[in-house]
Design a protein that fits this description.
This protein is of the alpha+beta class. The chain has one domain (about 1-240): START domain (Alpha-D-Glucose-1,6-Bisphosphate, Chain A, domain 4). About 25% of the residues lie in helices and about 30% in strands. The protein is built from 5 helices and 8 strands, in the order βαββαβββββααα. This is Phosphatidylinositol transfer protein N-terminal domain-containing protein. GO terms for molecular function: phosphatidylcholine binding; phosphatidylcholine transporter activity; phosphatidylinositol binding; phosphatidylinositol transfer activity.
Length: about 270
């Protein structure tokens, strides 16, 4: 199993990101759905779980089950090697913000031989907590700066979601300057994300695990650039309004799945 921990600085308050995260996930799901691929919401309900984090008090939040169909978003070599069913990923997510846990599996094809877990904790700090998610001591720790254009592909770039050009009228915040985390004029939180992947297949395991981990800096950078730069769209929304927005976009995704046009990111190697 390959484990990496990503640390992402964000110019937001902790409560703000709770709403911005939900808004961003809903909007990104819509933008990535079409042509038979993308996101299908299966079920969503409130939960309380005593075992979500062993040794910690019970946590409550929202459980969500989604299906992702992602063939065109995977490396070309993987598309050629694996069966169609390999690209249908089931995601189970427990959002007990500021802690979140997401588990992805492939029950139709890989079954118990594929497991992807993303644990997240969001903290008001400087990104220097030693091991906030109790990961293995030898894990790689990767810091991601949402202002770094090198993290995303050139086809991802949009001046409207560039934090270096962004300004929020609602919060009177931005743009982000060079070294903004040290000389900051904004709030600061860190999203700590530990990604663990197991792909048990003789001869392919290391290649697939590295390919998946390689994609996450781009995914995390692109998503959080959008989330921050969409701030004026969600900043004044209540949590109730955000949840209504989620349900509305879930229905739109269902309709978009049926049309012929694929949307969103496809896989590109960085040059």
């Amino acid at each position: 199993m390959l484990v990496k921990e990503y640390r992402i600085a964000l110019p937001l308050e902790l409560e703000e990101y709770n709403r911005g995260l939900l808004y961003g996930v809903a909007e990104a799901s819509k933008n990535e759905t079409g042509g038979g691929e993308g996101v299908e919401l299966v079920e969503q309900y409130d939960f309380t779980d005593e075992t979500l984090v062993p040794g910690q008090p019970p946590m409550s939040g929202t459980f969500t089950h989604k299906i992702y169909r992602i063939k065109s978003k995977c490396p070309w070599m993987i598309q050629k090697l694996l069966h169609e069913d390999a690209f249908e990923i089931h995601e189970e997510s427990w959002n007990a913000y500021p802690y979140c846990k997401t588990i992805c599996t492939n029950p139709k094809y890989m079954k118990d031989n594929f497991y992807l877990c993303i644990e997240s904790i969001h903290l008001e700090d400087d990104g220097d907590v030693e091991n906030p998610l109790n990961g293995p001591p030898k894990r790689d720790i990767v810091y991601l700066d949402i202002c770094d254009d090198a993290l995303i592909h050139k086809n991802d770039y949009d001046k409207n979601t560039d934090p270096k050009l962004w300004h929020s009228e609602a919060a009177n915040r931005g743009p982000l300057e060079r070294d903004w985390t040290e000389n900051r004029k904004t709030p600061l939180i860190y999203a700590y994300k530990m990604v663990s992947i197991k792909f048990k297949w003789k001869g392919l395991q290391k290649m697939i695990e590295k390919a998946v981990q390689k994609a996450y800096p781009r995914l995390f950078a692109k998503f959080n650039r959008e989330c921050v730069c969409w701030m004026d769209q969600w900043h004044n929304m209540s949590m109730e309004s955000i949840l209504e927005f989620e349900q509305k976009l879930a229905k739109e995704c269902e309709e978009q799945m049926k049309d012929n046009r694929k949307r969103g990111m496809t896989y590109h190697e960085h040059t």
